[in-house]
Each structure stands twice: as C-alpha cells, then as structure tokens.
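Tokens help. Consider this.
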Amino acid sequence: MADSMSADPRGGRRPRRGLVVGGVLATVAVLAGVSYGVAYAVSGNTLAPKTSIAGVDVGGLTPAEAQAKLTADLTQRSSEPITVTAADQSTTRTPAELGLAVDYAASVQAAGGAKSFDPRIIWDNLTGGSARPAVVTVDQGAAEAALSELATAAHTDPVNAELAVVDGKPTVSNASAGRSLDVAGAITALQHGFLTSTRIEAPLSAADPDITTEEANEALATVAQPALSGPVTISIGDKTLDVSAQTIGSALTFQAADGKLTPQVNPTTLLKASEERLDQLGMTEPKDASFTFADGRPKVVPSQDGNGVSADALAAAVTSTMTKTTDRVTSVEAGPLKASFTTEDAEKLGIKEVTGEFTTNFPATAYRVNNIGKSAGLVNGVLVKPGETFSMNKLLGPRTLAQGWMAGGAIDGGKVVERMGGGISQTTTTTFNAIFFAGLQDVYHKPHSLYFSRYPMGREATLDYVSVDMKFKNNTDYGVLMQAYTNNPKVGGQGTVTVKVWSTKSYDEIKASDPVQSDFRSPGPAVQSDAAVCSPQSAMQGFRVDYNRLFYKGGQVVKTEPFTWTYNTLQAVTCTNPDARADRIER
C-alpha cells in the first residue's frame, strides 16, 4: 500500500503536495461558504441591482417598493384583451375572463425579495440579478369557460373515407382528419404568453378517421371493382338467373364497422331489381295483407303466399360470388315464401270504427285543388301499426313539379309568398285534427305563424319539407288506418277535405275546450311598396291562444292535455306602382 509520504534522494523529506492542494480547496470552501452566507444574509433586504420582473426594472428596491412598482407598471398591461387563435378560429377575452392574474407578491419573492437558501436565488444575488418572469396564476374553471366557444368553433370531426356506387361506378371519397382544441395546452400557452403578447396561438389535437383513404382504395380494388366486373349467374333448380353488374351496383353499399369498410348487398333492393326476371322464371313473391275501402268502410285485402327465392337467400348468393374474377356461378333453392303480414295479422288490428274525424273548407283555386287532392290521396289508406310514428313529410316527399305538385301560397317571414306545394297545410291541419280527436299522441306539429279563420284557432298544422313536419304516434294497442278524400271541387268553387281515423276507441270521447285568446298585439304601420311585383295584403292582429284536449270515460274527464300557440302580427301592404304585377297568391 503506497504511502502519501515518499523519501528524498538527498536524505531529506519532500513537502506533501496533497496537503498543499487540500489546504487551497479548504480555503476556497471557507470563502465560498462565507460568500453564500453573506448572500443569504443580504437576500430579502433589497433585490439585486440588475433584477427585472416581466420587463419592469426593480433592481435595488426593497420587496415592498418592488411590489408597488410592479403593480403600477403592470396593471394596464395585465388588463389588455387577449386574442386566442386556433387554426382559422379566434376569440378575444379579457385576462379576467380567461382567469389570468399576476401574483405580485409571489413575483417579487421569486426574484429574490425574500430570504432563501435556494441556490438559484443566491447565485442571482452574487451575480447582480437577472430578468425574471412574473408569477401568473390561472383560474382553471374560468379559463375553460372562456375557451369553450373557441373549442366548439375550432372542433371538426374526422371524416371517414367512403366507398359508394354512383351511376354504376364505384367511387372513393377521401378521408380527412378532425381536430379539437387542446384546452390544457391552451391554458399553459396563456400562462406563458400573458404580459408578453396579446395574441396567443392555442394548440390543436388531431383526430384520425376510422376509415382512411388507403383503406377505402383497398376495398375498391378487392371488392367493389370485382363485384361490378360482370354478372353473377344463379342456378335455381333447372332455371338460371343472371344478376347484372348494374343490378349488383344498385344494391351494393359499404358500411364502416370496426375500422373497416364492409360490403352489404341490400336484399330488398336486389329482389326488387330482379322481380321481372324471377316472374319470367315462374317465381311468385308473397303479398302482404292490406286494406282498401269498400262502401266507405275498411276491408282487408287477403295476403298471398309465394314460391321462389327469398330476398335474404338471393343477397347471400350474390355476396358470396361477386368478388370472384372467374367462375361467377352459384345456386339457391326455391321454396314456399310466407307473407310477412298475413290476413290474420290484419284482422287482429281492430280496425273497425271511426275514432277521429275532421273536415275543413278551402277556396278551390287551381293549385289547392291539385295539391290538396294529391296529398289527401297519399294519406288515404296509410296503415300505422301500434308503436309506429307517422310523418307527413316522409309520406308526401319533396314537393317538386316532377312529382306532380303545383306552386301556391305559403307563409315565409311573415309574408304570403309562392312556394311549390302550397296549400298542403290544409290536408296537414285536417289530419292533425282527426288524430287529435282520435286521442293519438302528438309527436310534433307547428301551427301557422299567422291566423287564418278557416282553421280551428291554434289547432292547426303547417308543413315545410326542410324544417317543419307533422308527426303522430300510434300509442294504442290497435292499428290505425287513415281515410282521406276531397269533394272534388271545381276551380272557383268551395272545396272540402275530410280525414278519418279508423281503429278501436280507447276513450269514450275526445273533445277540445273552447280556445281562450290573450296577449293581443297590433300590427305595425302599413307598408307602401312601388315594386314591380307586389301583392297587397291586409293587416292581421297577433295574439296568444290556449286550449285543452279532454279525454272522457264514463262521462268524466280522465285526462287533460294543454296546448298553446302565439300568432304573429301582419303589416298591411299597399301597392303604389300602377304597373305592378300582382303575385295573385291567395291565402
């Protein structure tokens, strides 16, 4: 073991180098300790000479002086509105609304305005101070509330890629990623940027779609294109059915499930497209029971069983074969096919008596005769089974010229305007009243914004294909069969439309209480128009109306349902242009 001491060749002893070095280090340590102690001793009395907080010079000041100066200099800056941006969206809020505030005392303390053994503060004191940030506090709840509107505006859902057959050709729609505001990251950015910037960029989080464009293109190449490459031949006993690529395309859809696109062949669509050829092969489809009216009363049209291939079997055969590039041949067995809604099912519905009925009158203009007659014809014969909901818009469909509708009067923005399908509110109102007195559940209806005296006050329903429907639910244990007809009026005469509900009564009687009017309002001053196209109109008063639907059993009211509606006012319009062309629209 070597000794720290070693011999001198001249017989003397050499000085110990380690002792000298150790002494120097000890001296340095003592001096450092003295400096650290001195720095601690003076810390907190005044801030180091070169100290600044958030750009405010506070060097050499006592903590109290520094806090006062900091407060004075930062008060205006700390109240300036901040614009927070997220992609192409932004919101501007005050720091207080964002929950941001400066803790002046803590800011001074963190910059050396208090005694501390923290080496960073000691070092700062020894080196003369430095630029320090202010201590910013945040109210998490306030910040989240202030950012909620921006979060909603900046949010976009991811869009899955889609694969669809359009005009017989498979087409891919590209996917796109979604985004959402990173609220926690935005609050952190606000804390860091507060006092240095009045515009803060908030971070966004990306959301990937479940189905990517690449996945859709793979389904296109492996499923859609082979499926539409040619016909599928199906052997049915000793007969053959060729299902064309066009027929396959009309029934083929792709649904997103479990992160992939799954091909689905719609059995009903496929069978309908193949019906003519199946008939030629001697196949017969089952026919469900239905209802007709004979001598004004419902009559069951019996169901008929068929013999052939079921829709599900046909779809399964096509699905299993359509992706093959060769040998696109398969087989199915024909057999008896039962009707899904039998004569017995129809007879059990209890459609035996009128449970609700209503008739309204209308001026027989050309468009009303057409549109009311057409809509009544569509309502006539509709069967609503127990638990089902009827939708007038779903029944009538889009009102277009191609579908046989005519343009007529409608209300838009408090004015009578021309609209395709005008006048069908007459049928809608009559239907609503019929189901009202049948005691059926009112799911949704909306009266007109203006009052027309030919309708029951408040007890009426308008219709708009885009935004306003009339729906009711069959909330009974019996079937509901609708009967509707007009008196086939001549143009210029007086028309009527009647709707009856056939079912089994659940109550002895349904009545409506007398309407009670209140909150009358006068229209504004008359409007004079010199427009080239102008329809004069009379002023109409606005008011509120309340009434009840009363359900009777045993001569007593056992249930009451309140209804209320408020009608708008209508300003009078006077046409001053002598050459003005009238719209000739009647209400």
Notes: The two ends are 119 Å apart (CA to CA). Residues 353-511+549-560 form one domain. Residues 1-43 have pLDDT under 50 and may be disordered. The chain is about 30% helix and 30% strand.
